[in-house]
Amino acid sequence: MKILIPVDGSASAQRAVEHVIKYIPSLKEFPQLLLLNVQWNVAKGNVKLFINQETINDYYREQGNAALQSACSALDAAGLTYQYHISVGMPADAIAQYAREQGADQIVMGRQGEGGMKSLLLGSVAKKVLQLAECPVLLVK
Predict the structure, then answer these.
(1) Residue 130, class by beta-carbon neighbours within 10 Å (0-12 exposed, 13-18 middle, 19+ buried)?
(2) 8 A C-beta contact, residue 122 and residue 17
(3) How far apart (Å, rounded) are the C-alpha atoms in residues 127 and 129?
């Protein structure tokens, strides 16, 4: 069983990680845990005229690692193994695509991320994942 946990550094995403940690002992087999952080694509328009791709990639990696830090720490403290990946793009699309590519059996994610006003304008990432995902999605409050 593969469980994908999208992580954006928010308290809601951390609750999803804690939920998975809490319920692993009740599963018949130990799942493969996949953490995913999706960075918004900032290299649009003329940005690449002023900032080279290596610097942009370093930014994505730095921001992604920062967002993953508390989730990784919680899983490490619980003695659980996991893999993590940082991708770039529209979060809901990237989450659904990664779930398909990895053959995830379930997505466990927080109901609200760090979206704030962006969520109001663009719509909820969780709502879009529910529409796009081909596997079950568990939203954690």
Answers:
(1) middle
(2) no
(3) 5
Pair type for strands 106-110 and 82-88? unpaired
Domains and CATH numbers, the chain: 2-140 (3.40.50.620)
> How many whole angstroms separate alpha carbon 17 and alpha carbon 21?
6
Length of the chain: 141
Q: What is the pTM of this model?
A: 0.89
DSSP H or E stretch at residue 92: helix 91-102
pLDDT digits (tens, 9 = 90+) for 30-85: 999 999 999 998 777 676 667 888 888 999 999 999 999 999 999 999 999 999 99
